[in-house]
Amino acid sequence: MRVKEAMSGKVRMVTPDQSIREAARLMAECDCGCLPVQENNRLVGMITDRDIALRAVAEGKSAKTAVSDIMTGDVKYCFDDQDLDEVASNMTNIKVRRLPVLNRDKRLVGILALGDIALTEQAACAGYALSGISEPGGAHTQAQAH
After folding, report:
1. CA 98/CA 114 separation, integer angstroms
2. In the beta sheet, which residues pair with residue 19?
3. Which pLDDT tens digits describe the chain residue by residue (146 residues)?
4. Class of CATH domain 3-134
5. What pTM was estimated for this model as a whole?
């Protein structure tokens, strides 16, 4: 099975200059935990609910803080034509629960979350990935290190 068969294709995005309040409201509206950050039609980062909690709220930053101040710029991603098993294994190794999905022109076409994988006939991959991701052992961010 390919990533494009499991991913969520409806993706809302924010820009680096939007506020984290706007990002949080959009996450609530979309019922999602992360948003791709785009600038000039290119993926330049990711912001997660965890980023907002740990890099903004816990640090006492204002709700007006720009997304660019707390987003992860080193974005891990996968391609829509990749094998789902391979991507799930990679998610385990880099300890992420979701990845932006790009086409081969490097344009954002979706998001792949463990929940998406769990709804496929390869649901065992999601369980394996989640068990690996959940193991303690370091930074748990979209980019791994800052």
Report:
1. 6
2. 66
3. 999 999 999 899 999 999 999 999 999 999 989 999 999 988 999 999 999 999 999 999 999 999 999 999 999 999 999 999 899 889 988 888 899 999 999 999 999 998 888 887 655 554 545 555 555 555 545 543 33
4. alpha beta
5. 0.78
